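Morning!

This is the sequence you dropped in the shared folder:
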Amino acid sequence: MQKCWFILCILFLVYSSCTKDRFFTAAYNPLVASTDTLMFDTVFTEIGSVTRNFRIKNTSGLRVKIQSIQLAGGMQTPYIINVDGVSGSSFKDIELDPDDSLYVFVQIKINPNDANSPYIISDKLQFTVNSKITEVILEAWGQNAYYHRPNHAIKFKDGSYLPYSIISEQLHAVEKNGLQFTLKTDKPHVVYGYLVVDSTQQLIIPADVKLYMNYKSGLWVYRYGSLKVLGEFNRPVIIQGARRDRDYIGTTGQWDRIWINEGRNDNYIRYAVIKDGFIGVQADVFGTTLDGSGKLKIENTIIQNMSKYGIQALGYTIDAYNLLVTNCQEHLLNIDLNGTYTFLHSTFVNYWDATGREKSALRWNNYIDDNKQKAVFPLNLYFGNCIVDGKKNEELQADIQTDPTLNVQFNNCWLKATEVNQSALINCVKSNVSLEYKDPQHYLFKLKSPQAQIMHFTNAQAQADASKVPFDIEQIKRNTQDVTIGVFENP
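The structure's back. Tokens below.
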């Protein structure tokens, strides 16, 4: 009996082995893909996409010989596939065990054409078994763009470089009028390295322009240069990272910053959305004179999702109205040393959630005390009809030395704070409980419902500040007598 059982086991093993080694020969294709269509988000010409992948499974109980894996577009296709670590457009005689799977990786790099609007690029990836074909559709949107590539570099003492291009040399992408350069609007702009506005030059960025910034790239307005960002309601200027793939949505630190140095000319940012970088706007001096000569006006603008600061300022004059700054890893607003800063009907809310946040939403400082220098600087800071909120119990940080030249005032504001000096607060509401917003993680900072603690400010100063900003960021007319504070008139 034992001998018979042993023989049966041997026969079963032999049969199983033979079955495993048998190849599938039926008149259908047993390969099943994990998706029937592989979609890519909009891809700029000349820039490769992220890699996407899918799985192809042998659903039969037999070995399969895949006669070919090929792109229907052949050698002319912009798609590139990778099978078993090898890149190409076609592969032959690949064997797949029963119930086993094969991963296929796909990229696309699109050549430029004459189209200004996005256009679709399609292909098919075909898997042939016994002359029967299984297909996966590949689709991507291509977008031509103006490219700003560096042709200069600053070398630092540590051996590193800062690559840059100068706007006056980018004649393919601008309209030139003397020393004034206006970005063309028919295609988006993609920036590598720093795009520099040199001394005496002015850069105008009209409504609807989109600037896509690559890693460590930025916009640098060198001392005595000038920047005018002229977005309009429903036609904002967008400045964000260059990666358009859904994998990069909401990823911070994709680019560096907008850096504006001192000068005699006013800089202006209106109706812009600035997001996903390191610092949104850095306004400070390049030289050593802290005279506050640099001027920047910001209106109806959103700065969000920065891996350091929303705004960094030093020795500057900034006037901001209808400004919404949200979700940064460190401070939403960081002011050092001296300057004059006015914020009216602005909202600062920090619900940063990617990593732990230790720093307050707002910080200001008016002194230096180190081995090289000890000094206190004049600082004027005014917040009128503003909201400062966030996850921390204390969202205000005053790093100051008392001095007659220090003038900090919050007038008719709602503040997530308990420790700030009461003398700086006039008609303010302090709380250790945040307001309730619609969806902070997706940057929806309108309130879930009207909340009385930010409404019905009727004193003369609240009315005067509201009269300076008669429309909110959505172009809704404000009630300047019975004032709702913050950037939105209708919470």
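Headline: Residues 2-21 form the longest helix (20 residues).

More detail when I'm at my desk.
O.
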